[in-house]
Amino acid sequence: MTESERPTRRRSRSRRRRRARLRRALLGALVVGSLLLATGGWIGFRGWQARAHLLNAAGLARELSAQVVGGDTDRALRTLAALQEQSSAARAATTDPSWQLGRRTPIAGDDLDAVRQIAVAIDQLARQAFPTLLRTDLTSLVPTGGRVDLARLTAVSAELTRADESVQRTRRDLAAVSADSLVSQIRQALTDLRGEIDRLASLTSAADQGSRLLPPLLGANGPRRYLLVSQNLAELRATGGMLGAYAMIEAEDGKVKMGKQGSSASLGRFTPALKVPAETRALWTDLPGIYPADVNLSPHFPTAAALYREMFRRKMGITVDGVLAVDPVVLSYLLKATGPVIVPGGVPLASEKVVQTLLNETYQRLGLKEQDAFFTASAAAVFDAFFTKNVNPRVLLSAFDRAITERRILFWSARPEEQRTFGDSRMAGTLPEQDTVPTVGVFLNDGSGAKLGYYLRPTANLTVGECRPDGRRELRLRVTLRSTAPKSGLSESVLGLGMAGDPYTARTLVSVFSPAGGAVIEARLDGAEIALGSGTERRRQVATASVDVGPGAERALEVTVLTAKTGVGQAELWLTPTASPWTTQVHSAPRCDQ
């Protein structure tokens, strides 16, 4: 071989090596590409399977939750079997290695991860919470023959706690799923499922709390006495209505009976005034410490209950262990469970008409003494039906759940260790000093000295505004009050003192409470700036406007408030319960870090 031939051969070998490397690279790329395509195709196929099973499971879970809440056990058992099949299939479709690999991809990973979270949450619900709930004998929560069986109640307490823990865990897991990027069908299924699980979680929480708290409250460790007071929604107060009729409830070893009854007016006037918290006094002077009808001008129920208990002690010489407040709307929910009751004198109290009967018709047709007698008889009739009739426990729990959610049942224990167990729950009626989500309060107090609150139709719209450089957010609130009162024909009992001038005009003191650590900036009534009474209560700034609404008229109050420093885009409303429910809407916004 000549010297000139050697470079040529070296170049030839080099080209062959490069072509071999290129072939190997192309072959490797083809293999990897084929694997990726196969994996993607497999993920797509499994995704199609998961989607179908997940939509079925979500629908069945909603259906089963509604059946559990409604007490339809036979259908619930059939639905549970179908749910377990679908939830297990959905979970299996999202567990293989290819799905786990897909969850790490930048484009589809979030969707696949969210679908996986939903599938696991629903399957846990199907395997743990629902079977426990359907096994549990909830009749132990319901009185029979005037008595609650405390031994049976204690026996089911552990199972109810386990079921509630499972439901609450599922609720948190579903709340943590980001729905923004999900396909529309799964996003809607998730939204609907969250709503139904929220209802179920409220029921299991109430059942769990009831099973743990009821034994001592019902005299397991000795006799107890409570004041049951009715909030008259025709005369609005911040927690609902003026505390009108009362009844003493006596409990021992689960047996409950009704004792002395009367009206708040019979407790009289207290001078000198009882001691009122400084912040409450700055807002309402000494009124809550002078008149039983004004103890709940503040929405913080523990203050109102403690004042009322002390007034009752001073007047009657009886010390009670706590105060339970309800309103006629609660009675309408309970009467759905018990059926109608007949008040002595032949007047029926039915779920559909009891609010109208107690808050309007009675004042129109009876004098003052007859009114008190009728209210006393009505309370006794409903109490007797509740403790003696056979009632579906799940229907009853559903009624209690709805009433507690709407803040229509409030309870305060004079024993600090028991009161602490209620925490900041809705039933405790505690105005919290910290917010998980910025919460704006809108509380109504009658300023007419009349019973025109029955005719008010309130609305509230809250909009989350822009993020501010100082870390706060602006919230825009719009409250409207519309009066359906007639222009004539109402009785003196309804028209009362007529403090608005025209006796048919409802004067309402509207107090807006900022979120904890926030502030109230400005207010307009029907578009015109107005001056506001102001103060603070439990780390919330309070602004109060006096709003007069004539028959058939509507007024609009617009208020701008600030949150404390927050990055969240959600907000909530806390409203005075009224005879006619509020129409509400909350417009959220993206988080400040998005």
Which structural traits does this protein have?
about 600 residues, globular
Secondary-structure blueprint:
Blueprint: H1 5-70, H2 73-93, H3 97-102, H4 109-135, H5 150-176, H6 184-217, E1 224-237, E2 240-252, E3 255-263, H7 278-284, H8 287-290, H9 301-316, E4 322-326, H10 328-338, E5 341-343, E6 347-349, H11 354-365, H12 368-388, H13 393-405, E7 410-413, H14 416-422, E8 439-446, E9 456-467, E10 473-483, H15 492-495, E11 506-513, E12 519-525, E13 528-529, E14 533-537, E15 540-549, E16 554-562, E17 572-575, E18 583-587
Parallel strand pairs: 1-4, 8-17, 9-18
Antiparallel strand pairs: 1-2, 2-3, 4-7, 5-6, 8-11, 9-10, 10-16, 11-15, 12-13, 12-16, 14-15
Helix pairs in contact: 1-2, 1-4, 1-6, 2-4, 4-5, 5-6, 6-13, 10-11, 10-13
Question: Can you summarize this structure?
Answer:
The protein is built from 15 helices and 18 strands. It is α+β, with helices and mostly antiparallel strands and 594 residues long.
Can you describe this structure?
It is a single chain. With 594 residues, the protein is α+β, with helices and mostly antiparallel strands. It has helices at 5-70, 73-93, 97-102, 109-135, 150-176, 184-217, 278-284, 287-290, 301-316, 328-338, 354-365, 368-388, 393-405, 416-422, 492-495; strands at 224-237, 240-252, 255-263, 322-326, 341-343, 347-349, 410-413, 439-446, 456-467, 473-483, 506-513, 519-525, 528-529, 533-537, 540-549, 554-562, 572-575, 583-587. The chain has a 6-stranded mixed beta sheet, with no helix packed on it. A hairpin with a 2-residue loop joins strand 1 and strand 2. Helix 10 packs across helix 11 (354-365). Residues 22-48 have low confidence and may be disordered.
